[in-house]
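#struct-help
A.M.: can someone run this one for me? Single chain, 318 residues.
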Amino acid sequence: MKKTFSFLLMLSSILIFGQSTPCTNTSTLTVSGDFNVTASGTYPMVIPAQKITGSGSGTQVFRKNVDIKLTLGTGDVFESCVVKLDVDDFDDGLQFDIDGVNLLNFQQKHWDNTFGANTTEFNGSGRFVTSGGMWTPWTGQGNPKLEISTGKVQLMVDTKNGTREDALLFMDTSVADWKLISTFTYDCLAGFNLLIGNQNGGGGPSGINANLTVEAYVGPCDTSGSFTLQDDNNKITVGTCTCNGAKDGFLALSIEDNTHDYTITVSGLDNPITIKGANKTATVPGLGKGKYTVCFKVDGQPNYEQCFEATINEPNSL
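D.P.: on it. Structure tokens below:
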């Protein structure tokens, strides 16, 4: 029987031990233009979800134009600023500009091989087809999420294997009108303009339902005795057992930041697992049905520990 997978990423069942980093600031994050919202004083400062919606046809597209600026308070320390677009659905591509420069532009002809795209990952049994015969972002298939940070653009989408991957990496970049420029910067402190929304090839319906958020991380933070990593640094993929009573389930462990060495404990196992150096993954094979507590620790950081509860299942009895 084929194994099924589930992907654990900061789920509600996670237990996080240790103290969060206390941070204070008097800064203000402002979004103005088509939206007018501010956030201040918190860590991170978060502009709550602002709707980008529209429905039409042909060459119609639906975009929002905003100016984003962080005003730093006296003595405050700037860390980072991230723009996120949580997409309920879009038809049939996305685009955005920063300060008048187009940095992303794609539509259906870049990912659908029935439109001539030289890729198989969005049709038939491709990795992003989780139901039906093709990826259908206009139904929200795959829970797409566009993440924009300095020098990095990702469209994270569910795969049929239960993981999430950057769909942009699998599109046909040779088709006309494709644009993806990752070597860009934006400066929240100086302020920048963002124009963002859907793209459409000109045939059939066009639309988008999405939420735009902006996050700014500003200290100073009391880092004495505390240590943090990005929220999605530690990940687990769970492989189920193939037969009842079999012990061929597994846990695939991975980390994002490999500038640290990790020691990972799994309940029921005598010896810990390590991820060190340039490595970013490790696998724990030979596991039977049951619940396992998996705890990630960072070598040299005694106050940091993040624990997950992972469940390995067996197939349903016939």
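A.M.: thanks! DSSP finds no helices and 22 strands in the chain.
D.P.: also worth noting: The chain has two domains: 5-20+225-312, 28-219.
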